[in-house]
Each structure stands twice: as C-alpha cells, then as structure tokens.
TrEMBL record:
Pfam families: Glyoxalase. Residues 5-112 form the VOC domain. InterPro entries: Glyas_Bleomycin-R_OHBP_Dase, Glyas_Fos-R_dOase_dom, VOC_core. SUPFAM superfamilies: Glyoxalase/Bleomycin resistance protein/Dihydroxybiphenyl dioxygenase (SSF54593). This is Glyoxalase/bleomycin resistance protein/dioxygenase. GO terms for molecular function: dioxygenase activity. Gene3D superfamilies: 2,3-Dihydroxybiphenyl 1,2-Dioxygenase, domain 1. Keywords: Dioxygenase, Oxidoreductase.
Length: 117
C-alpha cells in the first residue's frame, strides 16, 4: 500500500482573486502557499488542506466535507467573519451545515455525535 503524506481537496474557481479573498475570510488567513499562478493552498488540519485553482470549466461543481469538533462554534465563527451558513441539519448521529463559495463549490461542515442513540 502506498504511504500517503498529504491530502488536498481541489476546488476549481473561475475568478481566482475573488475566490482567494472569500477563502481567506472564512479560513481567517492568507494562503499558506501559492505554488503557481492561479493556485492557492491552505493547510487546514494535520496533513489535509484545501487548494483553490483557477479552472473555469468545472468551477462550482465540487464539494469538500470537513469534520469539526463543535459545529455551533464553527457556525458562530463563520457568521462573525461574514460567511453565510446554510441551515444546520441535525440527524442525531451527525449535524451539518454548508457554505458556498462565489462559484458554487460547497464546503460542508460536519459534527459527529460521539454517543448517538
């Protein structure tokens, strides 16, 4: 089995500058690296990250799921940053909400109930 080092979710966008500004707002900082023109990367957890890449044709058709420790805290933080969250859906064993970038890519935040009924 291969030994994996990092995992990046790639979100294609049509307007790179607008997307970077939007992702900076919800992540709370500039990209960790911009390895080439039209690409910005943020490490968001351990060896996992998000890459925003200028690629207009598939822009807006991606989804990334991020598991969080506290969904209410995440929603509050996003709201403070001016990032609109969708309604919180509670399925008992998980709760989730999503945000949508300017192109329509979805970022879903999930909280997993440690003791589901």
């Amino acid at each position: 089995m291969p030994r994996f080092k990092d995992v990046y979710a790639v979100l294609p966008v049509s307007d790179h500058a607008a997307a970077v500004a939007w992702y900076e707002r919800w992540i709370g900082r500039r990209p960790d690296t911009e390895p080439m023109e039209g690409v910005a990367e943020w490490r968001i957890a351990g060896s996992a990250g998000i890459q925003v890449a200028h690629d207009p044709e598939p822009a807006g058709k991606s989804t990334v799921v991020i598991v969080v420790e506290d969904l209410d805290e995440t929603v509050g933080d996003l709201t403070e940053r001016g990032v609109e969250c969708g309604p919180v859906q509670d399925f008992g064993f998980v709760k989730l909400t999503e945000i949508v970038d300017p192109d329509g890519n979805k970022v879903t935040f999930v909280w997993e109930n440690p003791s589901p009924e």
